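Hi team,

Filling in the usual template for the complex we talked about on Friday. All components are listed, including any nucleic acid strands or ligand strings, so the model treats them as one assembly.

SUBMITTER: L.P.
PURPOSE: interface mapping
COMPONENTS: two
RESIDUES: 713
SEQUENCES:
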Amino acid sequence: MTTDTAFIRNEFVPAKPAPGRTDGPIVWLRKNLFATPTDAVLTILGILFLLWAIPPLYNFIVGHAVFPGGTVEECRAEGAGACWAYIAARFNFFIYGFYPIDQYWRPNIVFALGAALILPLLVPSAPFKRINAALFFVVFPLVSFYLLNGGVFGLRQVPTEQWGGLMVTLIIALVGIICSIPLGILLALGRQSNLPIIKTLCVMFIELWRAVPLITVLFMASIMLPLFMPTGTNVDKLLRALVGVTLFSSAYLAETVRGGLQALPRGQYEAGASLGLGYWQRTYFIILPQAIKHVIPGIVNNFIALFKDTSLVSIVGIFDLLNTVQAASSDINWASPTQAVTGYVFAGFMFWIFCFAMSRYSLWMERRLDTGHKR
Amino acid sequence: MKKMLVTFAAAASLGLVATAAQAATLDDVKAKDYVQCGVTGGVAGFSAPDANNVWTGLEVDFCRAVAAAIFNDAGKVRYTPLTSQERFAALSAGEIDILSRTTTWTMSRDTDLGISFIGTMYYDGQGFMVRKADEIASALDLSGAAICIESGTTTELNAADYFAANGLEFNTVVFVDQDEVVKAYEDGRCDVYTTDASALAAERSKFAVPDDHIILPEIISKEPLGPVVRQGDDQWFKINRWVYNALLEAEELGVTSANVDEMLGSDNPAVKRLLGVEGDFGTPIGLTKDWAYQIIKHVGNYGESFERNVGPSTPIGLERGLNALWSNGGLQYAPPIR
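RESULT (copied from the run log):
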């Protein structure tokens, strides 16, 4: 029986060449860098820019740089890069400022103690969180203050004018961060409050501090305040800056936290109330844990900004890291064409290390706390 | 009621103490056992931290001299680094006892701000720096030369005035920032760099080969830099003024920190008076008889301080110039101690 099949294939389909590679560097390049003519042009421009920018940068930072152990003559030589020898020579000044050299062990103990207490606090699985937190937030500041300031237990007194460098930057940042958290949360709760006086006061406080630049606050604290106060009452300059920075950052933090509070559905408040919880219990056990989790990126953003803003205290004559770098750049024993630039690169790098660490930690924390609310 | 009265009396007496404290800076200083000195945030040679993080400089030495005169110990000074904006407020508020911070003595500052200038530690003024290879000997040869200058400053106005007054062609290359000015001069975009002479010297020390550049002898503006105290405390003002005078007088009489002990036996009546061997000039101003001896012993005379901090042997390498004693053709002159 003949079949009515319309078509019978009676030869093989000619073999096609093997398909092009679907992976490997060439394909990756074509897909990611040269997909369209625009991409190709941008890529080439980008490469040209890097070729233009990287070699001089490399030469400055590494290639032609004078490393520790070098001399000022090498730094002065024609075409010399960064003078790291100068950074190494004045490193202690950048870390401790004018702190007496024979007393460096005191800030060193504080640094070590701080690191020993804060690391387990940051690792969720480390035990004894409560004791650890009490030690870090209550005992550590007291111990640090008496250790750094002295005047007790036979320690020589070191007035705060002599504190400086990275030490002061960290002190301002840590005090600012630690004190502004509770203050900011209280302000945020106050702003949500139904009590008109509390609400008005909080709104006024927040709006006042948010409406003035930090520089103005610091100038006010360091120049105007002494003029208002009777002569002889001398509030410590560092303390004035600490208070200014803390109040300033707490106002910003309050608004960040308020964002978290407002993101919570009304039902959460009502659910808490229907369980018979009072205002504080409800806030502490139900509202805040959820609200804060929502705004971790914002809070860390505040902290990073605060950390960088600490460099503004240099304009009121406090020797933070940036100011010590500036002061040391007038050191004639290391006078060289790249002296100032090297100092600024160093200061920038130090700031970057701390800010980058903070942002990485917060990312990790966010992922850990993620309970599926992410949108 | 009684309790209230006591409180009131206590408050009133506190008020009195506060007023008294305002008047007698010397008593305050003695009570707290150090002199609080306002300095710059770091100007090489004038006040800057050295390799051991100790404040040094010509203007720092003035505060050390005051401390030596009061406490026989030049180390009893605490330093407050101040910005130029906050310096006068800090002085008025009593945060510092002496402001020794490259402050130019001008009439409005002296009369309007409630402060008093002690004297001139350094006669500064605007100068010109050129390359040695250009073989320019005088600012009068600068007609038509490209001048690197910071815009919008008195520096620019001073230079324009000077060039107009001398009939020279004024040709500027203007920048907004001091660092840019220096960079442009270094890169050869102009022949001349002008700013205050002490700053010229400090910048020159940062060049790869400082000796390739010279500062011309002409100084075209007046910038007398000196220490300042609060107005209204004559005793403190006089102590400071005579500490300053003693520094100059000691140099004029050849009394140095090295030979001050030998000089105690000097036959020169002026030296005897200075060192307190004859007469007592310290007690009337609240100091001891040997106040000037202590200054010279611990700090040295003006010339020594100049040499040590900014003189030709330092990297800054400033010549005495206007700051030489009057007897050597300069302006530094102290009234006699007698």
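MY TAKE: Residues 1-21 of chain B have pLDDT under 50 and may be disordered. Residues 24-123+224-328 of chain B form a domain with the D-Maltodextrin-Binding Protein; domain 2 fold (CATH 3.40.190.10).

Thanks, L.
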